Inverse folding.
């Protein structure tokens, strides 16, 4: 049984909820990623911010990314998977919520992220194809 811990990429960098969207965008650019976890002062996961969130929820509404914080976009309880979840559970969670990346949690702490690219590297091609069909419909 392959677990989330085995397919995730480690070292997920958090943007703090009090950091600006400009800071978040710069970090995404430096790391060449399209999403960052949002963490609070307790270093616990409070949400996820995507490059699309910055464009749609800030720029398109005429707001200033140099003043709006990541915490403004942290909405609701983030969808996560446990580090010991098997890949079927990971896929089911991502498909059920139609998300392309999911944080991996161990002992209530963020330890990594799983993206579509991670799935493509670790799962059979037909399984990844079915996943992409499900979340893109």
């Amino acid at each position: 049984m392959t677990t989330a811990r085995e397919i995730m990429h480690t070292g997920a960098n958090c943007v703090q909820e009090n950091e600006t969207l400009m800071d978040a965008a710069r970090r995404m650019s430096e790391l060449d990623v399209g999403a960052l976890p949002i963490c609070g002062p307790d270093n616990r996961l409070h949400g996820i911010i995507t490059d699309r969130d910055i464009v749609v929820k800030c720029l398109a509404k005429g707001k200033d990314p140099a003043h709006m914080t990541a915490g403004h976009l942290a909405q609701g309880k983030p969808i996560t998977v446990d580090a010991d979840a098997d890949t079927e559970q990971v896929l089911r969670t991502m498909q059920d919520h139609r998300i392309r990346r999911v944080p991996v949690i161990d002992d209530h702490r963020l330890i990594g992220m799983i993206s579509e690219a991670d799935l493509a590297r670790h799962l059979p091609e037909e399984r990844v194809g079915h996943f992409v069909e499900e979340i893109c419909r």
